[in-house]
């Protein structure tokens, strides 16, 4: 102890010298500009926390500060909180753990829209239309979506007990369901529309997309597919490499699919069609609209630039920026734009985002009318840069993918809009099927074609629908009703078909009244001409 007391003053002197040297060194090697600004933000947060008149939420203030920083950048560089990031990861990975149902809250009741195919709920016997009354013994009536998801999702292998009311039998039944991994499919449906035309609707580009596409194409091929309509409408994008692999299914040779250019050279990339597939000569039409973005535009742009098929519908969103996700320590993340992508002809797809307030509005405010646009002459007055396709057609950059045939989507009256806004279609069909569902299943069994040909939404049923809507505060509008009568009839039939035959039933009926799809099926001779020109040049 005496020895320590003798040397203690030297320790103090050394410590003071260290502090002094540190201060001097800090003056010698000043903080970088970035560190200075970061320290400034941290100081402001600390001062506000200590001195502000009311208590403040430092976490929310930090998140607001991050959002403020990103507001000066492009619209797609964003901050994502931990919950949102978890959901995003599940979407891109294509799976989560839970019981596997789609549901809606109708009149405060959890109503099963559909059990996910092959999931634990379907295997346990849960059916469309079932009402979940209790979850693990607790009342489930009146829960909101977020609460339902929290209660039903959970670790694989754990169980949840549901008390179910089934209106068709008027019985209460208890189901013990073991949670499992639930696959989120990228493909909503693949089907043969007729003996020759295959149809695939792709909703996202996730880790499983390419495998799903291969399986769907093999299945359609085995059923006699000679032509394909590939629906990318309202597909917001996803993984860039998956988009390139999907495009490779249809593009031959070692052709460029997409390139990325960045400030940091490591992010520069060229993705090519490297594999040979049996679909490279299948006549192809791609459907797009203003909701088709990013990875969807990569596929559509490559097909258009190589004149491999036709693009039909409405001009795509116009997102040509590549984001890199960076996970933060608290589970939140940022997506930083690291590069721009370009189609094979060199087109930049990204729209201007100088006015960020108008960036999203612009898509909603577009007005396009039906027109043949193979030579893209409709864009001739544009100031956008021009590029050439494989067959020497002019296309334009800087504003998404403009279709070769512009076709407006089905327009609806304000009356139809109100019907959808109040969820009248689903509520009415659910009520109808609670009473008639078993009889329809027995009559049509697994025969979708028979249902499509024989079942009709009668005038009597339409009158009932009309009165049902009025009870839900949707005032009857005769002009709107007469204008949309056939589309209302088809939508009701499609919802009934969905209950009987899942998504295949919904799409098979709805496509019959889909203007863009119906136009596409009459354009295959033009798509085949594209293929012939390609083959002649080989």
Commentary on this structure:
The chain is 43% helix and 20% strand. The protein is α+β, with helices and mostly antiparallel strands and 538 residues long. The strands form five sheets. Strands 10-11-12-15-16-22-19 form a seven-stranded mixed β-sheet, with helices on both faces. The chain has 17 helices and 22 strands. The longest helix is centred in the C-terminal third of the chain and has 33 residues, at 478-510. Helix 8 packs parallel to helix 9 and helix 12 packs across helix 15 (478-510). Helix 7 links the parallel strand 11 and strand 12. It is globular, with a radius of gyration of 29 Å. The chain folds into four domains: 36-72, no CATH class; 95-183, PDZ domain (Pdz3 Domain, Roll), CATH 2.30.42; 187-322 and 338-410, 2-enoyl-CoA Hydratase, Chain A, domain 1, CATH 3.90.226.10; 414-513, no CATH class. It has helices at 2-28, 33-51, 58-70, 82-93, 120-124, 145-152, 209-222, 240-248, 295-305, 356-365, 414-421, 424-444, 448-454, 459-471, 478-510, 515-520, 524-536; strands at residues 78-80, 95-98, 101-106, 109-115, 131-135, 138-139, 159-166, 171-178, 180-183, 187-192, 197-202, 227-231, 256-261, 269-272, 284-288, 310-313, 321-327, 333-342, 371-372, 386-388, 394-396, 405-406.
